[in-house]
Design a protein that fits this description.
The complex is a heterodimer of chains A (252) and B (316). Chain A has 252 residues and is an all-alpha fold. Chain A is elongated. Chain A is built from 13 helices and no strands. Chain B has a six-stranded antiparallel beta barrel. In chain B, strands 1-2-3 form a three-stranded antiparallel β-sheet. A two-stranded antiparallel sheet of chain B has the order 4-5. The longest helix of chain B is centred in the C-terminal third of the chain and has 28 residues. Chain B starts with a helix and ends with a helix. The interface between A and B is large, with 41 and 35 residues.
């Protein structure tokens, strides 16, 4: 009883000091954020470290320090900082997102997949991050079918199909020996129904990925035909023009 | 004694004229050695002109007004990075490219005959640092009136890094910035007040020659970053904004504000189903603009000091 009273008294006496440290830590964190946004990562790191020294429970300082380490390619230090984050719910999705990203950069595909598999998907933004993380991990593990499926899911939450997505889906479908399925997807995907050029770009990517794998002249010809069909409708289509040149498919 | 008093009185009444300053020589020397156009129309202050500013007064120069007298072609299409935005593994780089473009608009001096061609290695390294998100600390000069050669040099990179790598790094730094969480995970609905505030901020910035960086949100799952290069008022509550859009590096698409909403069909119509619907607008990265402004103000303050020094050396 007496000990408890002493403890209470001590806590009461020390509480202003603790609060002072917390608010000083907050000031240092904000100074670090200012430096971070100004691109001065070295000074930002110092401020975040000072903030953490005053308040170890300042999760957002751990997170931003991890992001400084990530930018400086100190991946293990970044992971270490993330592991110190305990309670701050406002950053709960960002922590596994960065952790999963770091494992991808370290090419630790299985560790990455574990994180992305349990990553929340409660809104479209989180879904997109999850599918992208899974797709990249499956690619690393050379699980082409699963990677193609994950990239297809990623595409389904986008508003606009981009060239890199056609490429990822095609390369992985061809890797999984699913060329027919890839071509079928190009014809049937809801997103690609918006424009004829999307469907043709998708097909061109499938044929080109197949050509890279098999060196089949027929595939090369089909890729060129798909791009030329786009240019027949719109001679200025930048994607088709760029790909014709990049893939060295000859004049249209 | 009487004689001295008479001389003193004469000196007081008829002071000796100050030695004439040869402004033509100062102007010629500044143009030849510094690549600057210097004028002094009223004889009380030098007016500096280069590829960015026109008639910037040394007398009234301050951090706040450094961009209030810009050249009409300061942000022309030729001064835009000549490559489009790209996606790497599903993530676009428009935010980082727009940030880099804004730095280049303000911190590159074009048509400088003294500039090194190709750029010096130290300059190239510094420019790549900037692309990666480092704070600017000086201006850069190029011989040409466009960014093609400089951009090609940056894309070629150094032994350590390339432009695309640096841009992707900058994009990642934006992504893992907790201050941007609202851009990533919130519903980001824009009410009337927020939209009005965004417009007020854009007008405020443009009146000072600043270039706001905007995050456009047509829908919850899509966002795109652009710069406001110019603005015209068409009516009491009707504005047209001229944009830099990294998806269209050789164009100047427009955005409109009318009836209390922003519309950007020339930008979001490229990838969104309903390009004619209103878009949410967020003014972001104001600190980056502050840094650019501070670097430019320091540059012109130094330039003014040099021109004043020329007055003593060659002007008399």
């Amino acid at each position: 009883m007496r000990l408890a009273l002493w403890f209470s008294l001590l806590s009461f006496l020390l509480s202003p000091i603790v609060h002072a440290d917390e608010s000083a830590a907050q000031v240092l964190f904000e100074a670090g954020m200012k430096r971070y946004e100004e691109g001065d990562l070295k000074e930002a790191q110092k401020q975040f470290e000072k903030a953490i020294a005053l308040d170890r429970n300042l999760d957002k300082a751990h997170f931003q320090l991890a992001s400084v380490f990530l930018a400086n390619k100190k991946l293990d230090l970044a992971l270490g900082e993330l592991k110190r984050i305990k309670t701050d719910t406002s950053i709960k999705e960002m922590v596994p997102a960065m952790e999963g990203d770091i494992y991808l950069r370290k090419k630790k595909w299985r560790n990455a997949l574990v994180i992305w598999d349990i990553f929340p998907d409660s809104n479209p933004d989180l879904k997109a991050l999850k599918f992208r993380g899974q797709a990249r991990a499956f690619e690393g593990l050379k699980k082409h079918k699963e990677a193609a499926d994950a990239w297809t899911s990623f595409l389904s939450v986008q508003n606009y199909p981009t060239r890199d997505l056609f490429e990822r889906i095609s390369v992985n479908r061809i890797g999984a020996k699913e060329k027919d399925s890839a071509l079928k997807f190009c014809g049937e995907s809801d997103l690609l129904q918006k424009q004829k050029s999307f469907r043709l770009l998708c097909k061109a990517h499938v044929y080109h990925a197949s050509f890279l794998k098999t060196a089949s002249k027929e595939d090369k010809k089909s890729a060129a035909e798909s791009l030329n069909e786009i240019l027949a409708d719109d001679g200025k289509n930048p994607e088709a023009n760029a790909l014709l040149e990049e893939w060295k498919l000859g004049d249209r | 004694m009487q004689r001295v008093s008479v001389i003193a009185l004469a000196w007081l009444l008829f002071p000796l004229p100050a030695p004439a300053i040869n402004f033509a020589r100062i102007s010629n020397t500044a143009e030849r050695c510094l690549g600057l156009k210097v004028a002094n129309p009223r004889g009380d202050s030098y007016l500096i002109s280069d590829s960015l500013v026109k008639g910037l007064s040394c007398k009234t120069l301050s951090n706040d007004n450094v961009f209030t007298s810009l050249q009409p072609d300061a942000f022309s299409v030729e001064k835009q990075l000549p490559f489009p935005n790209w996606h790497s593994y599903g993530i676009a780089n428009c935010w980082a490219i727009a940030g880099m473009q804004r730095q280049l608009f303000y911190l590159t001096r074009f048509n400088d005959t003294k500039a090194s061609d190709p750029p010096r290695k130290s300059d190239l390294r510094r420019l790549l640092d900037l692309a990666g998100g480092a704070a600017p600390d000086r201006v850069f000069s190029v011989k040409d009136d466009d960014l093609r050669k400089l951009s090609a040099a940056m894309q070629g990179g150094t032994n350590d890094t390339t432009l695309s790598h640096q841009i992707e790094l900058r994009q990642s730094t934006k992504f893992y910035n907790l201050d941007n969480l609202g851009m990533l995970f919130d519903s980001r609905e824009r009410g009337k007040t927020e939209t009005r505030n965004a417009l007020a901020q854009i007008i405020h910035d443009r009146n000072r020659g600043r270039m706001p960086l905007l995050i456009l949100r047509p829908t919850r799952t899509s966002q795109h970053v652009v710069l406001v290069k110019g603005m015209k008022q068409l009516g009491p509550d009707h504005f047209i904004m001229i944009l830099y859009d990294s998806n269209q590096p050789f164009s100047e698409p427009r955005m409109e504000f009318r009836d209390g909403h922003f519309y950007a069909p020339e930008v979001v119509g490229l990838y969104d189903d309903d390009g004619n619907a209103p878009v949410g607008v967020f003014v972001n990265d104001q600190r980056e603009m502050d840094q650019i402004q501070a670097v430019a103000a320091a540059h012109y303050a130094k330039t003014c000091r040099i021109v004043s020094a020329l007055e003593k050396v060659v002007g008399q």
